[in-house]
Amino acid sequence: AQKITQTQPGMFVQEKEAVTLDCTYDTSDPSYGLFWYKQPSSGEMIFLIYQGSYDQQNATEGRYSLNFQKARKSANLVISASQLGDSAMYFCAMKNSGYALNFGKGTSLLVTP
Amino acid sequence: DTAVSQTPKYLVTQMENDKSIKCEQNLGHDTMYWYKQDSKKFLKIMFSYNNKELIINETVPNRFSPKSPDKAHLNLHINSLELGDSAVYFCASSQGAGGYVIEQFFGPGTRLTVL
């Protein structure tokens, strides 16, 4: 069975600072993908970044990077130079050979001026 | 152009009513999903269709029935609504279903409130 754990229910960060959102996972499948989604207060789910289990390098997308530590089964999201608009819920999710995304419980990020 | 659209965005109804939520995607994807987000923001898969065939049917009450008339549409019908059905329902789509590299694109969500 798959499991995604996000241990930080809420985080604060000051504008322009970097922040790391934690995600650990558990799966027995050697092939899997890890995804991060952002859900602002408006409610939509926005895809941010993807990391495959066989990818040698950490994924990066603009200010987002994924700190992938396979041996530790962690896939932390790093947001650099935080902006007020980054305030949102952030969800880590995993997909293997099954059909659905399995989500963590999310982390609420608040960026302060 | 909206990639994955859902109607309605908000749905307020009385207990025991029957309601439907519609989803359409214009991405040419062959797989569509329904997820439920509860009051604690937890997202969980409910159903998935691949090429109009049901491939995921999680433990969901029989009152929920998905229907996929074609690859671009996936509707969710709910009979005899209960208070506990209040949630946000997300439709999503992807090209392919079984691989691990497949990104899912989400609709804007439908907030269902049962009074």
Which ranges of chain A are low-confidence, i.e. pLDDT below 50, for 5 or more consecutive residues? none
The chain-level structural class of chain B is mainly beta
Oligomer: heterodimer
Q: Could you say which overall geometry of chain B the principal axes of the C-alpha atoms support?
A: globular
In N-to-C order, the SSE pattern of chain A is EEEEEEEEEEEE
Largest sheet of chain A, in brief, is: 6 strands, mixed
Gap between N and C termini of chain B, in Å? 34 Å
Helix content of chain B: under 10%
What percent of residues of chain A adopt helix (DSSP H or I)? under 10%
Beta-strand percentage range of chain A: over 45%
Strand content of chain B: over 45%
**Largest interface, counted by CB within 8 Å of the partner chain's CB:** A-B, 28 and 29 residues
In short:
The complex is a heterodimer of chains A (113) and B (115). Chain A is mainly beta.
Write the layout of secondary structure elements.
The complex is a heterodimer of chains A (113) and B (115).
Chain A: E1 3-5, E2 10-14, E3 19-21, E4 24-26, E5 33-39, E6 46-52, E7 60-61, E8 64-69, E9 74-79, E10 88-95, E11 102-103, E12 107-112
Parallel strand pairs in A: 2-12
Antiparallel strand pairs in A: 1-4, 3-9, 5-6, 5-10, 7-8, 8-9, 10-11, 10-12
Chain B: E1 4-7, E2 10-13, E3 19-25, E4 31-37, E5 43-50, E6 53-57, E7 64-70, E8 73-78, E9 87-94, E10 105-106, E11 110-114
What would you note in describing this structure?
The complex is a heterodimer of chains A (113) and B (115). Chain A has 113 residues and is an all-beta fold. Chain A is 0% helix and 51% strand. Chain A has no helices and twelve strands. Chain A has strands at residues 3-5, 10-14, 19-21, 24-26, 33-39, 46-52, 60-61, 64-69, 74-79, 88-95, 102-103, 107-112. In chain A, strands 2, 5, 6, 10, 11 and 12 form a six-stranded mixed beta sheet that branches. Chain A has a four-stranded antiparallel beta sheet with strand order 3-9-8-7, with no helix packed on it. A two-stranded antiparallel sheet of chain A has the order 1-4. Chain A starts with a strand and ends with a strand. Chain B is mostly beta strands and 115 residues long. The A-B interface holds A 29, 31-33, 35, 37, 39, 43-45, 47, 50, 52-53, 89, 91, 93, 95-103, 105-106 and B 31, 33, 35, 40-45, 48, 50, 55-56, 88, 90, 92, 97-106, 108-109, 111.
